[in-house]
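Minimal example, chain plus KG4.
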Amino acid sequence: MKILGVETSCDECAVAVVEDGRRVLSNVIVSQIEVHKPFNGVVPELASRAHIELIQDVYERALKEAGLGLDDIDGVAAASRPGLLGALLVGLSFAKALAWTRGLPFAGVDHVRAHLYAPHIENDISYPYLGLLVSGGHTLITRVGGFDEVEVLGTTIDDACGEAFDKVAKFYGFGFPGGAAVDRLAQSGDDSAFSFPYPSLHKGERRYDVSYSGLKTAVVNQLDMFLNPGCEKTHANIAASFQKAAIGILVRRLLLAAEDTGLRRVVAGGGVAANSCLRLALCGRKDLDVIFPSPVLCTDNGAMIAALGYELLRRGRTSPWTEGASARVAGLRHGYP
Ligand code: KG4
Ligand code: ZN
């Protein structure tokens, strides 16, 4: 079954064709970096307009790179939530129109679940496992018991992990998009130049939650307080020390969840899963079996939408033509052990 997946939830206009949820036949991603760079952040209205201009071309390229025509496609999937509403509507409407005119089954896909599902494209992964989703909008530590069993163990109580990277990068002018810029800059920095604070959340019901607002304030407003004697206040040192703390906060909670649940398999997804420090911290652990997608499947892409769409459509779970876009995450059970 060849599924065409459309992703326009934020600033990547992406269309992919994936066969049977595993074989990526094409994965075209056009980033709007140049559109949003002058503002150091994504401007929702500009993102919607850019998607309108890009989508047809991205779709045609995806078919061409797959060596297919529309007649070869068996189903269509599009991100329908969560994300920027105007941006989502472009891809969703495009995909629905395509499916409707061709009489193809259509599935609206939850973007967050698609990030969590992306590692399944390249790997045979058995359940259960700890799912780590770290993106610009979400930070979730989950227990994934099966295809439909995603239980949220912990989340952020303020900023998302990627958002913290973006805000720090924006403040110091490290570059846009922020996460990748911090990652790059940190390579030449000393990560022990600053000792930034780690949040101490209450145990019990917030056991696996993370917080980034304290770290962000420390890096942006209280920098000098955390500079270690004899160390230099350079951009590279700020980036490296911040990155170490941001990833450390996450890894600590994840290890706690692994210990408590007894789950040794960790499956990561989302833009921050492309971070070299996170990959190093987790892949180096002998006590865990860690699975990361390739970097191109970490950040927003159509392949993850097509892969999850395939799983829904082969179960007969089509969406109605009235399927709307939503800013909210759906279908995740929130709970604490
Ligand atoms: O998954 P994604 O492409 O979009 C959302 O669903 O949010 O994630 C984007 C986020 C941004 O915050 C970006 O700064 C971050 O992922 N990111 C990174 C890296 N690459 C992207 N953060 C840290 N290190 C990276 N290498
Ligand atoms: Zn995303």
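The pocket of zinc ion (ligand 2) is lined by residues 111, 115, 135, 300 (CB under 6 Å). The longest helix spans residues 235-261.
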